[in-house]
Structures are given as structure tokens and as C-alpha cells.
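Bug report (template v2)

What were you trying to do?
Predict the complex of my protein with zinc ion.

What happened?
Run completed; filing so the output is reviewed.

Input:
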Amino acid sequence: MKTTKNIFIILMSVILCASLTGCVQQTEGETDSVSNTDSLVQEVETDDSEADSDEIYEGVVLDCRVELSGDPKETFVAEQDCYTDSDQVVIFFQKGVKVSGDMLKVTEEIMSDLCRQSGLNFKKNYNYETFNVIGMYFENTELPSVDPANRKIHILIVDPNEELCNWAFEGGIVVSADSYDFNETRYQVLYHELSHVIHTRNGTCLTSLMNEGYAVFMSYHTMRANGIPSEETHQYFSSPEYPSGRFDDSIIQNGEEAFMIPYGKRVDIYHYGFRLITFLDDVYGEDTFEKILKEATDRGFDEGYSDENEKEDIRQDQLEMIEIIKSQTSDDVFEEFAEWYELNWDKLYEDYLDYMEKTNQ
Ligand SMILES: [Zn+2]
């Protein structure tokens, strides 16, 4: 029987992730490095019922609420743990973080870019259980009482002195302040992590491979649609310049067997996932991910696993996900993927390089 993941798993997930600044994750059994990746936490325990929280906390405004100038040239330095908010977003700042005055606007623009590209929205369309991540990063403050039902998207900007991994949870993201430095990062981390959030605001988690594949795909195409170069995507085309992005793509020819990548093989999960989502979008239409998400959510697909039986639970989830993908496409979908890959991937890589050349000028 599956059990719900607990806080320990969430903390493990934080350790397993990696940020643009070069945090490298270690996994059990196998070690692999991935740049600029993260983890997505699925199920969490909670004891607050949403209705209660709404009733008690709606409209709470704390003394530590701050107003940002909105000016990209101005810098805001958090002198204490504090927050700011708009209709859609709450941004929490740990003491000491330094950000530009327009970051609320930047966040909303990225969210609206992702809505346009994905056809989804950030409303809480899926009733996952809320878990107060805020309390993990802001102990001994009242900040967890701001929007505890997670109606808005929560952005946590964490102490620059802490070694931080960027990661996403159902209600928001935890990132370093430099994720908001456009010249340094092109907002890549924000596009990636918020892709996870828009996914999970609309349905259940779909196995690491599908979750990460979607985030890599969606961040790439959203940045591209906005004329922003996405350097991070380069590694996922397994080009020779990116040995860290190594991926033995011949496994795709093994059909659905290749989908059964063990959790520890993080690099393969991102690479294979990106290719599979790209194929599904290209051949079965851009709403295919959404259809798979809906089917999985309707079926009550539950990506939980117990600590004792982790490998077998993950295997069962993968087998179930294969069936869900087939149900929304065709029984031969993995053979079609193998064929499509041989014919199309090199062309898509060239096309990516063209776009990079144009946008980098
Ligand atoms: Zn991710």
C-alpha cells in the first residue's frame, strides 16, 4: 500500500535538487549531476483543512508587509523577514535578501507567459492538500498565516548565505534572489519552476519523468515564444559541448521499456522526458499533456511511494503512467516515438541553435 510522503521526503527533495549556481545533487544508489534542475514535491501531510484556514486567515495583513517600488533600477533589501503581495502572488523575503524593485511584476509576467503557452492557468484548479512550506523557511514568525490556503502563488526568496537549491511545490517555488537577475539567468529558473507550479495547480503529479519533461519543454518554449535565449536547454539536446548533459538516447529505441528509468537516474529523466513531451506535442497535438494530466487526475493517479518499498512503488507508477499515456494517444505510441525521434531530433536541435543565434544577437 502506498503511503504519503512526509516532511523528511520533502527535505530530501531539497537536497536532491540543483540550482543554476551549481548545487549538485546526490541520489541514493546512483550519483549524477544535473545543472539547473530541481525537484517537485508531490504529496504532503497537512492538518489544516482548507475551509478552516480560509475562514480564519482571509485578509490577514501583517506589519511586516512591504511595498516594492516597481522600478527595476531600484534595489530592495529585506531588513527583516517580510513579504509583499498582489492579487495573484505573495513573495516572502528572508532577512538579508536583495532584489530589484520590479520583481513582483516580473513574476506576474512570467506567469502570464506560461498561461499563454500552456493553455493552463494558475488558479487552484486541483484540490491538492496544502502544506505550509513557509513555516519551513520562516520559523518563529507570523508569515505562515499569510494566505495559508495557498490561493495565490507563493514565491520564497531565501537567505543568500544559505546553500540553496531551487525547487517547486504545489503552491509555489523556493528560489535564490539571483534567479531574478535577468542578465545572469534570463529568468530560466523561474520559467522552469513555475512550469511545475502551473502543472500541479491543474492536476496530479505524473511521475518524475513526465513532470520534469514538461518543465524543461514548457520553460524552453515559453522563453522562445518571448524571444529570450534559453541556454539551459542546450544540455538537453545532448550536444558535444555539454558533456554533463550526456544521455544515451539509443534507449528510446527500446520502446516503453525505456520509460522505466529508475528515480536515481536524474539526468535520463530530464532528457528522456523532454524528448517524449516534445514528441507528444508534435505528433498528438499541443493539448496532449493536458489530456494526460486530466486522465491521470480523474483516475486518481497517486504518485506516492513508501520508504520501504520505493523501487517497486515507482515501477508501478511508471507502468500505470504508460497505460495512461497510451489511453490518450495510441497503443503503439512508444514505437512511434522511437521512429519519430530518429527522423526529427537532429532537425529540432538545428532549429534550436538557429533560435539561440538569433536571440543572442
Ligand atoms: Zn524541475
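What did the reviewer find?
The two ends are 55 Å apart (CA to CA). The beta strands are 75-77, 82-85, 89-93, 98-100, 153-157, 167-169, 172-175.
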